[in-house]
Amino acid sequence: MSKKPLDPNASKALKQMKYEIANELGILNDDTIDKGNISSRQNGLVAGYVGGYMTKKLVEIGEKLLINQSHKK
C-alpha cells in the first residue's frame, strides 16, 4: 500500500491539518524546532500524538460523509 495520497492536492490539506491539530494540542510549529537537540523518542512521541489525532479526525470526516451519502439515497 502506498503512502502517497490518492489526490496530489490532498498533501497540502493534510499538512495544514497536521499544523492545526498540533496547534490545538499546544505543540509548537514542528519546522521551528531544532530537532538536533531533541531525542528521537521525544520526536516520535509528538509525531505519534499528532498522527493519532489526525487519524481520529479523518475517520470522523469519513463517517460523516458516509452518513450523508446514505441519507441522499
UniProtKB/TrEMBL annotation:
Keyword DNA-binding: yes
Top-level taxonomic group: Bacteria
Keywords: DNA-binding, Sporulation
Gene3D superfamilies found in the cross-reference section: Small, acid-soluble spore protein, alpha/beta type-like (6.10.10.80)
GO biological process terms held by the UniProt record: DNA topological change; sporulation resulting in formation of a cellular spore
One Pfam family named in its UniProt record: SASP
MF-aspect GO terms: double-stranded DNA binding
Task of the protein: SASP are bound to spore DNA. They are double-stranded DNA-binding proteins that cause DNA to change to an a-like conformation. They protect the DNA backbone from chemical and enzymatic cleavage and are thus involved in dormant spore's high resistance to UV light.
UniProt similarity note: Belongs to the alpha/beta-type SASP family.
PANTHER family, alphabetized: SMALL, ACID-SOLUBLE SPORE PROTEIN A
Record protein name field: Small acid-soluble spore protein alpha/beta type
